[in-house]
Amino acid sequence: MLPIAETNEMKRPHLRGRFAPSPSGRFHIGNIFASLIAALVADEMVLRIEDLDPDRSKQQHIDAIMRDLEWFGFEWTSAVVYQSAEEQQERYRRACEELEAQGLVYPCFCTRADLHSARAPHVGEEFIYQNTCKGISAEVRSERMSCERYALRLDVAAAPSPLCFADTFQGESCFDLLREAGDFIIKRSDGVFAYQLAVVVDDAASGIDSVVRGVDLLTSTPKQIYLQRLLGLPTPVYGHVPIFVDESGRKLSKRNKDASLSYFIDDLGLSAEAILGYLAYCSGIIPEWEAMSIAELKREACLSALEGKRMIVWQSPTRHI
pTM for the complete prediction? Predict the structure, then answer.
């Protein structure tokens, strides 16, 4: 059980969490919910802007994200971290070089079309790399590297099977990396370091020991844990919260108007506290909808209500107004 309210008898380690938005658009309700639970679990937070992809990351989105976080009352205790910063990029380079020195990295020349023609996953399935470039001879590999673009993949053949971890909300979770994911990319063919490597390096550099995010990212966790072990980095406590879905079971996105912040704020005129309270009520961590601040939710919310939940069917707040 995981009630959030502390008593004098309860003793637990000081937890440092993180907000880690990707600046590809404005927040929607799912982003705010994950941020809320992250803030309720942790004692202090770091804000990291995951602007690895220069084509998708826009300054106006960064500005909007920071305004929204501040409007809701979220706080962070240190300078904002940007993945695009040279200091971060140098950390990724060193980590990549360390993995290469262990003989665990190889070039992949496959295009997106090549990968999906080899095996297009069904809806909801994880893409599994078919080792197309793994067996290329050293001579051919060297020749192709001199004239073709290539990504870098991590060889997971030696990963423990299964790789298990205790998730705060989803319980014991076990994965077979080789069978369920295959060798994964740590650096893209355009030179951009991949999400899996970057977040592992970032979390360690910022001293993050609590990672709370949507359950749709659960399958990323074994990849990140394996990278942590290879690089000698600590593993945070992971907690994957349920995602909001529509009545057909599809994850809510920015395209769902009644789950957009502009709808809640501009159309309905709700306060930050009313929105937070509605999300807390919908998820079951408080019994009734009432406007509540983050500080109030820290005292009142019962996070054990999220245990074992993977989806929450979204209901428009107009049904309750």
Answer: 0.91
Compute the distance between CA of residue 67 and CA of residue 158 in angstroms, rounded to an integer: 44
Mean pLDDT of 190-218: 97
Alpha helices by DSSP H, 120-191: 138-145, 177-180
Distance CA 300, CA 66 (A): 26
Tell me, what's the pLDDT at 113? 73
Q: How far apart are CA 161 and CA 157, in angstroms?
A: 10
Q: Is the peptide bond before 21 cis (omega within 30 degrees of 0)?
A: no
Q: Among candidates 169, 138, 132, which has minimal Cα distance to 151?
A: 132
195-205 and 220-231 helices, crossing angle to 10°: 60
Q: Does residue 321 register a pLDDT over 90?
A: no
Tell me: the pLDDT tens digits for 157-168?
999 999 999 999
Number of separate helices (H) and strands (E) present in the chain: 11, 12
Q: Note whether 244 and 251 are within 8 A (CB).
A: yes
Whole-number Å distance between alpha carbons of 74 and 77: 10
- Rounded to an integer, what distance in angstroms lies between the CA atom of residue 152 and that of residue 138? 15
How many Å apart are CA 286 and CA 302, to the nearest integer?
A: 7
φ/ψ of 180, rounded to 5, equals -100, -10
Nearest-10 crossing angle of helices 29-41, 272-283: 80
Q: Are 181 and 175 a contacting pair, CB within 8 Å?
A: yes
Task: Tell me the pLDDT tens digit for each residue of 278-293.
Answer: 999 999 999 999 999 9
β strands within 109-158, DSSP E: 151-154
Q: Comparing C-alpha atoms, which of 166, 184, 269 is closest to residue 220? A: 184
Pairing of strands 151-154, 184-187: antiparallel
42-61 pLDDT, tens digit each: 999 999 999 999 889 999 99
